[in-house]
Design goal:
Layout: H1 10-37, E1 43-47, E2 63-67, H2 74-84, E3 87-91, E4 105-111, H3 120-130, E5 131-142, H4 150-157, H5 159-165, H6 175-180, E6 186-193, E7 203-210
């Protein structure tokens, strides 16, 4: 789910891949997502919802303002929305300049998105803009491994082909630092490795920030 203009082949491949991977991601992340999202308001702003993997965690009737630049995700997203009983308000734009009113959102969600946006600092600034005072930004992202580690060397070795295939996905991004310097009133963040601990995308962070 990238802010890049989707490639006609890679965009379709990534939409297909996300749909196929969704059951595994639910097993991997489901309980952690439920904890992070907390109490779900009537309207949720979600960055890069893709094929709608997070819709299963929202109560039926939730309105999702879906900030999604890849139109090739839309058919699967709509099907998932119908299945889970949520309403989509699509904003076909990148997260760097989301078409959402300032100080209007109680909850903004981003899962496996900040790795691929063009300008993560600007995206996080946009999140702060659209959140109400006291609003919550819930995130779960894969990140760069520690500098000098074997996994970091692997990430750097495959960086270019991975980024090309993933339409901007950056295995080495330091999203924790971006969030820590973003000016939120509070930030709770945990680090963990995915179940596939050997994989180059294994290092993760998850948590929430309060405006």
């Amino acid at each position: 789910m990238s802010a890049h203009e989707p490639h006609p082949v890679r965009g379709r491949f990534n939409a297909w891949f996300l749909a196929v991977a969704e059951p595994g991601m639910h097993r991997e992340y489901g309980e952690r997502k439920r904890r992070l999202f907390g109490e779900i308001p009537e309207t949720v702003v979600e960055l890069g919802p893709g094929t709608g993997a997070n819709f299963r965690y929202y109560p039926r009737g939730t309105k999702v303002i879906a900030v999604e630049p890849n139109p090739m995700m839309l058919d699967r997203m709509q099907a998932q929305a119908r299945k889970q009983g949520v309403e989509i308000d699509l904003r076909h734009a990148g997260a760097e300049g989301m078409d959402v009113e300032s100080a209007s959102a109680q909850l903004v969600v981003s899962t496996l998105v900040l790795c691929s946006v063009r300008d993560p600092e600007r995206v996080v600034s946009e999140v702060r803009r659209v959140l109400r005072p006291g609003g919550r930004f819930a995130f779960l992202e894969h990140v760069g491994a520690p500098t000098g580690s074997g996994k970091r060397r692997l990430q750097e070795r495959i960086h270019r082909p991975w980024q090309w295939l993933g339409e901007g996905c950056d295995l080495t991004r330091d999203t924790a630092r971006t969030l820590e310097s973003a000016g939120f009133s509070s930030l709770e963040l945990e680090r963990f490795d995915s179940a596939v601990s050997w994989a180059p995308w294994a290092p993760h962070i998850a948590g929430f920030a309060i405006r």
